[in-house]
Amino acid sequence: MSQGPDLPDLPPDLPEVGIRLLDPRLAGWGFPHWGSAAAAGLDLFACLDASLLLEPQAAPALIPAGFSVLIRDPHWCGLVLPRSGRGHRDGLVLGNGTGVIDADYEGPLLISAWNRNPSGAPIRIEPGERIAQMVFTRVARPRLAVEAGAGGTGSGRGSGGFGSSGR
Q1: Which listed residue, of 44, 67, 70, 128, carries a Cα 20 to 30 Å from 136's Cα?
Q2: Residue 89 has pLDDT above 80, yes or no
Q3: What family, per the record (predicted)?
Q4: Is the dihedral of CA 146, 151, 157, 158 positive or negative?
């Protein structure tokens, strides 16, 4: 996939990630693209057939993003994150906080959207609206060594429990 003329040259060690378009409207909405040459997140669009209303504190809705991502390199994953403007201004957040797209998942990308507001007006999502973003990142899977003994902290940190550092 072309990065476009406004984006800087990419480092040679980046994997190629496939995109399988499932909704033909995406191309007309400008997908796939980053919003600027320095943007970290790939814009994700609501591939809906009609407007969707998210009532305050109601169950999250799954919104199709209209494509599958084919990462395939186990050293990489995708993170689905909210867009900051709609989250701050309107209360639109992801129902699962952050979505993790594993390298071996090739199914349709769905966005869990939730209206976090305790009351008030519903949030309206329109077809073709940018509602989330995907950031690609490296994955570190260290070797885990199970150590003998229950509890205890060799460093002294954590002996007071969760949030005990006082900061």
Answers
A1: 128
A2: yes
A3: Belongs to the dUTPase family.
A4: positive
As given in the structure block, the two tokens for residue 2 are 């072309």
pLDDT of 120 above 60: yes
d(CA 32, CA 98) in angstroms, rounded, equals 20
> What residues contact residue 27 under an 8 Å CB cut-off, 6+ apart?
21
Q: Which tokens belong to 14?
A: 């980046």
How many beta carbons lie within 10 A of that of residue 117, not counting itself?
17
Q: What letter would DSSP give residue 56?
A: T
Indicate the residue type of 98. T
Report the alpha-carbon distance of residue 59 to residue 56 in Å, rounded. Answer: 9
CA 125 to centroid of chain Cα atoms: 17
Q: State the virtual CA torsion across 94, 96, 102, 108 in degrees, nearest 10.
A: -60
Q: Characterise 18 by phi-psi region: left (phi > 0), alpha (psi -120 to 50), beta (else).
A: beta
**CATH 3.40.1390.20 assigned to 18-130:** no
Question: Environment class of residue 150 by beta-carbon count within 10 Å: exposed (0-12), middle (13-18) or buried (19+)?
Answer: exposed
Question: In the chain, what is the greatest distance between 2 CA atoms, to the nearest angstrom?
Answer: 59
pTM of the entire predicted model: 0.83
Partners of 80 in the beta sheet? 99, 134
